[in-house]
Design a protein that fits this description.
This protein is α+β, with helices and mostly antiparallel strands and 408 residues long. It has 20 helices and eleven strands. The protein has helices spanning 11-21, 31-37, 53-60, 114-119, 143-149, 158-164, 167-179, 185-193, 203-214, 225-237, 240-244, 250-253, 262-270, 276-281, 287-298, 307-328, 334-346, 359-366, 373-387, 394-404; strands at residues 27-29, 46-49, 67-72, 77-82, 85-91, 94-96, 107-109, 128-131, 136-139, 151-152, 182-183. It has a seven-stranded mixed β-sheet. It has a two-stranded antiparallel sheet with strand order 6-7. Strand 3 and strand 4 form a beta hairpin. It starts with 10 loop residues before the first helix and ends with a helix.
Length: 408
């Protein structure tokens, strides 16, 4: 069912009135309008009008309620802030592209009409405008009908839309995941034809879309793993997954929907790829996640008897990630689960740094000098308290050493 009223923050009424007093109409556009019409709550608000950013800057320069943040005047965009909330403002614009799919417009003109601004957008359901002052919906291209049929459709020829910006292929899959909409046949066939253009995109932009897709289960209160499965299906059906992630196996990739941690999702998604390091560039938003994903893939064939050693070398956090990965794959590791639960119950920070004895204590207790053996003894002590977290006291560990290292 499509709602007819767009509920929006009250401060937008104040901002809209300022625009109106200066002869311009302020609109909300894009995902916020789409979601509101579907009865979903979103905090991602994009606003627009035919007012040039320079004039918006002058208009709000001395205003108490609103201030201007980052500006990109050639693209007609700026951030408008209100009490800690940031809104992206974009002037109506026309764009031209090099037709190589590389995302950034070649030229931008800021003298566009609302219709011309709507035509530059990706899908009709994202081209619905809401006139804040008058409470009117402006839908020039049948976007509301697409909401009713849950369809992703381009108003212009999809070949033109995707050759302008190949990122729209990934957006198609990501929006499908978030909304459970299905791309129409023309869009899917066009995406297949221009899939190679995806390689023209920056790794950062690809990664951003992949992260949003793999966390689509958290987008709305009603979202679930089914949302992620939907997005992955679209990625494979339009051949985007196979193009970016050579050798990817859909059977493993789809399991990423079942994981909770993003590192586990990413590891499952790319675990069968031919070039793991290349695949990491497209799915890991930072070096910490990249490191975790490499660890998980390296240990995907982990044996339970290695649990204590793994926890000693890699710590509880990674042990929990690995336990999650193996559970999704249907491989419950009872020892790993037992020891991680024990560590959490007694002291989440069990590590080499939290041993109750130091190297000096070890040398004194065993009457030995500096030796590589001290490192080995520390590892043995850590493995001991992983099995027995309540034994991490100085007296208990010295007693353990004297029992087990009597011949030194």
């Amino acid at each position: 069912m499509i709602n007819s009223y767009i509920k929006h923050p009250k401060y937008l009424d104040e901002l809209s009135e300022i625009f109106s007093q200066n002869g311009h109409t302020l609109y909300i556009v894009g995902g916020f309008v789409r979601d509101a019409l579907m009865g979903r709550i979103s905090d991602d608000i994009d606003i627009c009008s035919d007012m040039h950013p320079d004039n918006v800057f002058k208009m709000l320069a001395s205003h108490e309620s609103f201030s201007i943040g980052q500006r990109n005047l050639p693209m007609g965009t700026m951030i408008i802030r209100h009490k800690g909330v940031s809104l992206e403002y974009t002037a109506f614009r026309k764009e031209s592209y090099r037709r190589d799919g590389s995302h950034t417009p070649h030229t931008v003109s800021l003298d566009a009409t609302l219709k011309e601004d709507a035509l530059r957008r990706d899908f009709a359901c994202n081209s619905i405008y809401y006139d804040i002052k008058n409470g009117k919906i402006i839908d020039l291209f049948g976007g509301i009908e697409d909401l009713k049929s849950k369809t992703l459709r381009t108003e212009r020829e999809p070949d033109e839309v995707f050759t302008e910006d190949a990122l729209r292929i990934l957006r198609m899959a990501r929006i499908s995941a978030e909304t459970m909409f299905s791309p129409d046949t023309s869009s899917m066939e066009s995406a297949k034809r221009f899939k190679q253009s995806l390689k023209m995109l920056s790794k950062e932009r690809i990664c951003r879309e992949m992260e949003k897709l793999l966390t689509a289960d958290k987008k709305y209160s009603s979202s679930s793993k089914v949302n992620i499965e939907k997005g992955i299906d679209v990625l494979f059906d339009c051949l985007a997954a196979q193009t970016l992630f050579e050798g990817i196996a859909e059977k493993h990739a789809i399991k990423s929907a079942e994981a909770k941690s993003y590192s586990v999702k990413a590891a499952l998604f790319i675990s069968e790829c031919k070039d793991i390091k290349h695949a990491l560039d497209y799915i890991c938003p930072n070096t910490d996640i990249r490191s975790d994903v490499l660890f998980l893939i390296k240990n995907i064939h982990f044996h339970d008897v290695q649990s204590v050693s793994l926890l000693a070398h890699h710590g509880l956090r990674r042990g929990l990630l690995l336990a999650e990965l193996l559970e999704v794959l249907g491989r419950r590791c009872s020892l790993l689960e037992h020891y991680t639960e024990n560590m959490q119950r007694h002291d989440y920070t069990i590590s080499m740094k939290t041993l109750a004895v130091s190297g000096r204590d070890i040398k004194k207790a065993l009457k030995i000098n500096d030796s590589p053996l001290i490192g080995e003894i520390k590892t043995a002590l850590l493995e001991h308290i992983i099995k027995h977290p309540d034994k991490n006291t100085k007296d208990a560990l010295i007693g353990f050493m004297k029992e087990n290292y009597v011949d030194l």
